[in-house]
Amino acid sequence: xxxxxxxxxxxxxxxxxxxxxxxxxxxxxxxxxxxxxxxxxxxxxxxxxxxxxxxxxxxxxxxxxxxxxxxxxxxxxxxxxxxxxxxxxxxxxxxxxxxxxxxxxxxxxxxxxxxxxxxxxxxxxxxxxxxxxxxxxxxxxxxxxxxxxxxxxxxxxxxxxxxxxxxxxxxxxxxxxxxxxxxxxxxxxxxxxxxxxxxxxxxxxxxxxxxxxxxxxxxxxxxxxxxxxxxxxxxxxxxxxxxxxxxxxxxxxxxxxxxxxxxxxxxxxxxxxxxxxxxxxxxxxxxxxxxxxxxxxxxxxxxxxxxxxxxxxxxxx
Length: 317
Description:
13 helices; 4-stranded parallel sheet; 6-stranded mixed sheet; alpha/beta
């Protein structure tokens, strides 16, 4: 059986395909697919209509305007996609704002002639959904055993961390911020990860979309730890956006701020993508919440403390 030609329209799906050992089967990617590094050499068949260099508040306004008009946030290059003749296309139905959706793909394939590709549409909301999606992609690629083995490995790593975290007495109260302006808490699998890492998640529910968050509610909860992991942002961009948080009334008086337990996380690479690196996201949370028990070495890459004025960020403990 020949190797299928695969197009991934989702960054996490690209990571799943590669983790299964099918990197060479990929013939195209989305504009957001950047891991593993060598996938950047593949042609991108999507683009965004959003200017991501703008501040959080401006991005939010632009997205709202586009969605309210009934339009898509993304464009799919239908002509290029057709020319690549894929056998399999992986997309998603979980969020029309976060990535190219099944609807976007349907429009691109509307006048497709010849044999239609097999479309796999992922819809993860909780960790169990993510692992089921890994198995689904493996099945489509005729590699079910690889899929089962990969998931078993992920689950074993998660179980080991969770078991150790359960043995610890302290369970810090944690607020996860997925968007800064306006404020949004993290949902879906992130609350699960916080609990598995030995924390008590304050906002957002497992398996449910990320909720908007009122500043007064965050102040009233006065969390022990604040994790800032905006959707689509790496740590340098989070640093740029932090003044929108630190200028809010009462920020300096929060317990997490006074104790130095505010952390900037790479939400783009580790927390928002529903793929293999959610295990590393759990490691990041575990070593932040319980540095006395966990040390995976993600500091400075997956997370950092915000810098004091005129200093470099603190990349460790």
